[in-house]
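for the recovery benchmark. tokens below, seq after
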């Protein structure tokens, strides 16, 4: 199955592109993360300077894209990608992505929704490949990836799995609905 409907959805969730003015919301979301979620996201302790992290997530330029999921005006999840500098001139650039959902709102389909929208945004911006690093113990994130039909793009290296996804191949496997289309954000 390529695209699934999350089990418990996401009614009332607004997903939009993050802007520099969203920095405080992004910082607050990361401050609320528990130690375990922070470990899964950062592979260690949460960064000390969360204000800097939040500012960098809210940057809007060709090398950065971040989407936020809001419920009732509260930011409950962020999906972002970053393009390594040397990739920007590439015809089919590669980006690295990551996700985080507020612990109280996990397993309601928000992570899946954000990832789907991030892939749409990447395609709309001409991105060719999306990569991510996921700890082998991160069963939830790996389930999100497998449910999207991306198990073939995972490669294990010790305690980490690398995802290296070719978006063109994925679009062909998904059919015409996955071809690049305008993204309203
Ligand atoms: C990974 C993360 C972003 C997923 O967000 P989410 O909103 O919980 O994800 P979803 O609800 O869309 O999907 C979770 C799916 O994982 C599976 N799942 C849920 N709990 C699980 C568990 N304990 N073990 C295994 N699989 C599980 C289910 O298939 C579930 O889908 P379902 O609800 O349709 O049955 C979120 O858990 C998170 O922020 N984790 C901490 C940070 C992190 O790990 N980031 C990823 C680094 S790249």
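predicted aa per position
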């Amino acid at each position: 199955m390529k695209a699934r409907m999350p089990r418990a959805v996401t009614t009332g969730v607004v997903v939009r592109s993050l802007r520099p003015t969203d920095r405080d919301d992004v910082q607050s979301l990361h401050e609320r993360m528990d130690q375990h979620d922070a470990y899964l996201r950062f592979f260690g302790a949460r960064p000390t300077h969360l204000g800097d992290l939040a500012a960098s997530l809210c940057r809007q330029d060709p090398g950065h894209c971040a989407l936020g999921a809001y419920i009732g005006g509260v930011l409950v999840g962020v999906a972002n990608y970053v393009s390594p500098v040397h990739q920007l001139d590439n015809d089919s650039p590669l980006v690295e992505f990551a996700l985080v959902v507020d612990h109280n709102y996990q397993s309601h389909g928000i992570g899946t929704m954000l990832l789907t929208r991030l892939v749409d945004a990447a395609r709309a911006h001409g991105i060719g490949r999306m990569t991510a690093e996921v700890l082998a113990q991160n069963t939830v994130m790996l389930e999100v990836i497998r449910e999207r039909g991306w198990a073939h793009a995972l490669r294990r290296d010790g305690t980490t799995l690398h995802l290296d996804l070719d978006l063109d191949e994925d679009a062909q496997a998904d059919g015409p609905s996955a071809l690049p289309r305008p993204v309203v954000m």
